[in-house]
Amino acid sequence: MPTRPAPTERQKRLGAELRKMRLAAGRTTEYAAGLLGLDRTKVSNMESGVRATSPERIRILASNYDCADEAYVNALVALADSRNRGWWERFRGALPQGLLDVSELEWFATRLRSYQTVHIPGLLQLGSYARAVFDSALPPLPKSEVELRVVQRLQRQQVLDRDNPVDYVAYVHEWALRMQFGGRRSTREQLTHLCEASERKHVAVRVLPVEAGAFPGAGHAVLYADGAVPQLDTVQLDSAHGGEFTHAESQLAKYRAHMDWWHTHTLNSQDSRDLIHAIAQQL
Questions:
Q1: Which residues of the chain have pLDDT under 70?
Q2: Is residue 148 packed enough to be buried (19+ CB in 10 Å), middle (13-18) or exposed (0-12)?
Q3: What pLDDT, on a 0 to 100 scale, did the predictor assign at position 2?
Q4: What local confidence, expressed as pLDDT, does residue 73 receive?
Q5: Phi, psi of 244 (to 5 degrees)
Q6: Which pLDDT value is given to residue 107?
Q7: Which of 148, 149, 211, 226 is the most exposed place for a label (fewest CB within 10 A)?
Q8: Backbone dihedral region of 183: left (phi > 0), alpha (psi from -120 to 50 degrees) or beta?
Q9: Backbone angles phi, psi at 181, to 5 degrees
């Protein structure tokens, strides 16, 4: 199979899991190469996501690594399936790969949770609000790229509109509701839309009031995506230089604890809607 010049985050994750499985079995790359009839370099490339692999090879490795977790192996096989190109591929070469990786992560997740402290979650943003967010970037983005990013952000919301929508819980700090991206009118429209979205049975919006005081992960925007099996959960962190992805078990445990904290300390869905309505009426 040919090598990839720039593997996606999903492709790199598959490679990382194959390497983790090999190391857990105490096997070397030479052993894996012998099983598959490949040279050692190709196995290393496979474990870094640079080289594609087939479902058959994944099952051969899992069997010889004594991995008896069938659900996990099936999930790895699904990661290797590249027959269907996602909608985000239309933006490849036009937008940073990190933005496309987030789209792919959300699309294949079985549940999504996020917390935002500065702005409304991207999956619930209106176009005018998203445009104001992208217009604030430094150095300034060209207008054409701003519009492209707005279109891509709105396209991401397909995960909430498709026939089998993903369950989504958005934890939002009160100050994010009060930040006026695009001005009063834009913010008021956005808050109204946020309330309407929270009425959907698979979407929950829970607000952390300012009276709650300090909170974990202050200053970060975090997305926690549940995988097909818990071993394939992923956390995506926003930063000024782009999104960062982590799936180390210690980090997953930390951010699971963060999400549990937010769930405990935020207002319930109805009280959150009441607060959002109240803030919108002040604008």
A1: 1-3, 83, 218, 240-242
A2: middle
A3: 62
A4: 97
A5: -120, 140
A6: 96
A7: 211
A8: left
A9: -70, 115
Q: What is the DSSP string of the chain?
A: --B-SS--HHHHHHHHHHHHHHHHTT--HHHHHHHHT--HHHHHHHHTTSB---HHHHHHHHHHTT---HHHHHHHHHHH--SS--GGGGGBTTB-HHHHHHHHHHHH-SEEEEEESSS--GGG--HHHHHHHHHT-SSPPPHHHHHHHHHHHHHHTHHHHSSSPPEEEEEEEHHHHH--TTHHHHHHHHHHHHHHHHTSTTEEEEEE-GGG---TTTT--EEEEE-SSGGG-EEEE--TT--EEE--HHHHHHHHHHHHHHHHHS--HHHHHHHHHHHHHT-
How many whole angstroms separate alpha carbon 119 and alpha carbon 270? 20
Cβ–Cβ < 8 Å for 49, 247: no
The pair of three-digit structure tokens given for residue 229, joined into one six-digit string? 């099996």
The pLDDT, as a whole number, for residue 5 is 74
Closest of 221, 213, 103 to residue 160, by C-alpha: 103
* 79 alpha carbon, distance to own chain's centre: 15
Residue 243: what pLDDT? Answer: 76
CA torsion through residues 78, 80, 81, 84, sign: positive
Bridge partners (DSSP) of residue 112 are: 168, 225
Q: Which two tokens stand for residue 18?
A: 């194959």
